[in-house]
């Protein structure tokens, strides 16, 4: 439910600069363009660009996924058409920010999915599966509208952790050991919660998983405390986990970090979160990646950037310089007469993309002037001879300069 609450005030298509009818290809193209333009590495210290980058990434995570986009479109369509209006009272009859028709943002303590069942077709007055608003909202909250549905959690809890990687580890991809403490399947009952698997319908809720109560004009429902919302009672609970199917323990897993992750990126590992109760699926693990700066490399999108110190002679006469890459060093040709600060491009030596191709290595050459006393007498004499010859040839480094007199 929290996900749909977040969606209510978000315009993901607007964040990506596309229409709601845009194709998947157009959405992907818009995302790549905006992510490249607003990437923190390309806009150091620019908080506005950083926030834009985060909004674009969040938007693409939803409308770039076919199933999430469909659910988002349905939810926004209902809000836009006033589909939640007309109930007043408990749902904020005066209207709320971003919710036409009187619907307002709520917290879990205001109501849960069971309340919607009673209001829109799942309670005593409604017919399950009648295609009404109860069915639609049931889908939004990951619940069907069948009378036999359960209030028990359908999966384990998601888990979040943080790791710090060196720049080159993030660029090349790596594996990283992570130690997690939380709910894991019970090894005695293999997660079922029962020694033999015997269960019977809960006597308190008659197998529905809900206790229904009358509250004013509406029927209210809450998960049954006797069966934990499952609708079933285990006849012979496992002595190790007391029938829950899970035990709290510490486990170590190896996380594979794909090549090219950026600082602040979140990597999702499906099914690596906490175990679900009584054999239900595990939640997901979300790994927040922090990337340490590198003393040599920076990056711009999939391109690596490096500044190489050179001498005046290297640029004036031309030659080759040896520069590092993420793998082995390569030689870069410097044409004669190369100006200071010029950037030379080495194809395919940048960050590897998902397609298998890679970005480029951008090598900027920067002249280093010898400090006073660094040259011996012969070098100084030769330098003075060159300076005089330079003047005699008519070369003027300030020719055409706006400040020349």
Summarize the structure.
The protein is an alpha+beta fold. It has ten helices and 15 strands. The strands form six sheets. Strands 10-11-15-14 form a four-stranded mixed beta sheet.
Description:
The protein is of the alpha+beta class and 405 residues long. It has three domains: 2-110, Helix Hairpins (Orthogonal Bundle); 155-197 and 236-292, Urease metallochaperone UreE, N-terminal domain (HSP40/DNAj peptide-binding domain); 298-392, HSP40/DNAj peptide-binding domain (Sandwich), CATH 2.60.260. The chain contains ten helices and 15 strands. The chain has helices at residues 2-8, 12-16, 24-38, 47-63, 66-80, 113-119, 133-140, 167-172, 312-317, 377-392, and strands at residues 159-165, 174-185, 199-201, 210-215, 218-223, 232-234, 246-257, 266-269, 285-291, 298-300, 303-310, 319-323, 330-334, 343-346, 361-367. Strands 10-11-15-14 form a four-stranded mixed beta sheet. Strand 12 (319-323) and strand 13 (330-334) form a beta hairpin. The longest helix is centred in the N-terminal third of the chain and has 17 residues, at 47-63. The radius of gyration is 32 Å and the shape is elongated. One of its GO terms (biological process) is protein refolding. A zinc finger (CR-type) spans 173-250. Belongs to the DnaJ family. Its cofactor is Zn(2+).
């Amino acid at each position: 439910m929290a996900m749909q609450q977040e969606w209510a005030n978000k315009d993901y298509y607007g964040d990506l600069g596309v229409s709601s009818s845009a194709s998947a290809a157009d959405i992907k193209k818009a995302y790549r363009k905006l992510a490249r333009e607003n990437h923190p590495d390309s806009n150091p210290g620019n908080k506005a660009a950083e926030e834009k980058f985060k909004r674009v990434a969040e938007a693409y995570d939803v409308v770039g996924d076919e199933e999430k986009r469909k659910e988002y479109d349905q939810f926004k369509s209902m809000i836009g058409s006033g589909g939640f209006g007309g109930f007043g009272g408990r749902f904020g009859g005066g209207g709320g920010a971003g919710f036409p028709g009187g619907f307002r943002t709520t917290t879990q303590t205001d109501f849960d999915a069971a309340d919607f069942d009673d209001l829109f077709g799942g309670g005593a007055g409604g017919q399950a599966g009648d295609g009404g608003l109860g069915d639609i909202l049931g889908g939004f909250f990951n619940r069907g509208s069948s009378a036999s549905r359960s209030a028990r959690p359908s999966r384990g809890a998601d888990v979040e952790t943080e790791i710090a990687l060196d720049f080159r580890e993030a660029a090349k991809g790596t594996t990283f050991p992570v130690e997690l403490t939380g709910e894991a399947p019970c090894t005695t009952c293999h997660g079922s919660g029962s020694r033999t698997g015997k269960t019977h319908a809960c006597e308190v809720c008659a197998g529905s998983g809900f206790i229904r109560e009358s509250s004013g004009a509406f029927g209210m429902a809450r998960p049954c405390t006797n069966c934990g919302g499952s609708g079933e009672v285990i006849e012979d609970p496992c002595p190790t986990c007391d029938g829950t199917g899970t035990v709290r323990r510490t486990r170590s897993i190896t996380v594979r970090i794909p090549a090219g992750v950026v600082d602040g990126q979140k990597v999702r590992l499906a099914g690596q979160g906490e175990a679900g109760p009584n054999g239900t699926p595990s939640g997901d693990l979300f790994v927040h990646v922090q990337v340490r700066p590198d003393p040599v490399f920076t990056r711009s999108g999939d391109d690596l950037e490096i500044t190489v110190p050179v001498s005046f002679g290297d640029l004036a006469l031309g030659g080759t310089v040896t520069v590092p890459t993420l793998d082995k060093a390569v030689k870069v040709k410097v044409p004669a007469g190369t100006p200071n600060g010029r950037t030379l491009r080495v194809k395919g030596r940048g960050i590897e993309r998902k397609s298998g191709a890679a970005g480029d290595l951008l090598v900027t050459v920067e002249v280093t002037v010898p400090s006073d006393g660094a040259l011996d007498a012969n070098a100084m004499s030769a330098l003075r001879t060159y300076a005089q010859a330079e003047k005699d040839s008519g070369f003027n480094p300030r020719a055409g300069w706006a400040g020349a007199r």
